[in-house]
Amino acid sequence: MRRREHKVSYLSSEAIFAIPSMKPSKVIVSLLFCGSLMLSDIYYESSLKIRGYSQDLFMPLGSLINIPIGFLASIPDSLTTRSKLKLYLDEVERENKKLKVINQFLEKVSKENEELNPLWSSARLNLDNYFFAKKRSISSNEFKPLMTVDIARKSNVEINDILLSHRGLVGKIISLGLYSGEIMLLHDVRSSVPVITEKSKLHGNVRGSGIGRDGKIEYIKKTASYEIGEKVYTSGIAGIFPEGIFVGEITSIDDLDDSEFLKVEVSFMQSPFNQDFYLIYKND
Amino acid sequence: MTRDSKNQLLIFLTLFIALYVDSYLFLSDFQMMKPTFVLLTLIYWNMALPDKVGIMAALSFGIFVDLIEGSLLGLHGTSFVLITYACQRFFYQFRVSPLWQQSFILFFLFFLYKQIFALDFINIDQDISNFSDKRFLINSFLFALFSSLIWSPLFLILRYYRRKWVKS
Questions:
Q1: What is the pLDDT averaged over residues B3-12?
Q2: Which of A41, A189, A273 sits opposite B74 (nearest CB)?
Q3: Are B166 and B8 a contacting pair, CB within 8 Å?
């Protein structure tokens, strides 16, 4: 029997078979180590340099998660007969032909638009600046939610590129790995987006307040004339977010007595939980 | 492979499975209040076999969770180490309590644990030191409730697993 598995009583010299609890010195060393990690993260944002690569390491875990979902999704297919599948295939082929025809018309319309407005096409239709990204996971951190997306290895995506959905701005890339990108969502308390309102044309910064909460436009003077329901777009100031991307809608304006600023809340229309595919926009 | 290392492997396997369950993406509201299975599993092993699970396991899994969750690096590590120490310090008292009493204690422990994540460590807002609001308190309450409710079935599953596979 090993020495550490028992103590000897001073009174009777009998063995006491008690499991020794963790040594406080070890706990203190661990806490000091964690403290130094936290300080380095606070002052030098050290975790951002390794988070993307650590998500690459956890990628097999993400793939494992999809196994039960894929299995459940494949059950109806495996129960369908061959004739039914053939009918479905014919239907899909017809739909595909229809889409090809529509695309041809759209290309024509797009060319006409380009001729009419070359400035618009240069700003918006530079397709090389867009990359597809698939959502892998969202953290359960309520105030600093992070979304991890799968990205192609040589996709030329960089930190501070922005993530878009069909409903507007979702967030920006803060950490990159080889196959993963971490997105700071608009809802994050650290996120601050320079915006301009649709009607009143007032500038401000929208800050997130956490998942499921409305964002706030900061430091707005009480003389400002916002309207409820007014749409908010990125202003392009600071250069990170390009101009004119939809951010949200003003839902409430409060003039509080104990504050020198207006309390303006913005509802984000885009929920990261409802969508799987996104576009990364590379801002030149 | 020695018995000790086989046991360690089996214990770490449960912790990795718990990490896998934690990474699962649930619906928006439930995502914020889902129980932390890694911590529950860690508490179980600290209580059942305190000499097999040490501070290094708590620290490493805390840092893993930090990296997955995107929280301040070392924050989960700190809380996991403190909870592990408390469990090891008081496991004689905790282990003999009935399951409902253990769940009751864990409810308060998990409620406190959740509050750490509302603290504003990087001073984002000059006026406040934490972001906690009514919604967060409700979510924390539900998180603690779900964690304490899941404790009994998890305890029984892990106990069966330990008796079947982890031989001392």
A1: 89
A2: A41
A3: no
Fold classification of A128-284 is Thrombin, subunit H (2.40.10)
Q: What is each CA distance from A61 to A157, A174, B19, B68, B141, in whole angstroms?
A: 23, 21, 9, 11, 29
> Are the C-beta atoms of A194 and A207 separated by less than 8 Å?
no
Q: Distance from A248 to chain B by nearest Cα, in Å?
A: 19
Cα–Cα distance for residue pair A136/A134, rounded to 1 Å: 6
* Set of chain B residues whose Cβ sits within 8 Å of the Cβ of A26: 54-55
What's the distance, Cα to Cα, between the start and end of chain B in Å?
14
Report d(CA B87, CA A89) in Å as an integer: 59
Q: Taking the model in full, what pTM does it have?
A: 0.81
* Residues B72/B91, Cβ–Cβ less than 8 Å: no
- Do residues B107 and B145 lie in contact, with contact meaning Cβ atoms separated by under 8 Å? yes
Q: Do residues A137 and B25 touch, judged by C-beta distance below 8 A?
A: yes
B contacts of A58 (beta carbons < 8 Å): 23, 67-68
CA distance B142 to B136: 10
pLDDT for A201-221, tens place per residue? 888 899 998 888 899 998 888
User: How many other C-beta atoms lie within 10 A of the C-beta of residue A264?
Assistant: 25
> What CA–CA distance (Å, rounded) separates A195 from A185?
16
Residue A242's closest CA among A123, A89, A136? A123
- Would you say the ipTM is above 0.85? yes
| Rounded CA separation A253/A233 (Å) | 17
What pLDDT was estimated at residue B2? Answer: 83
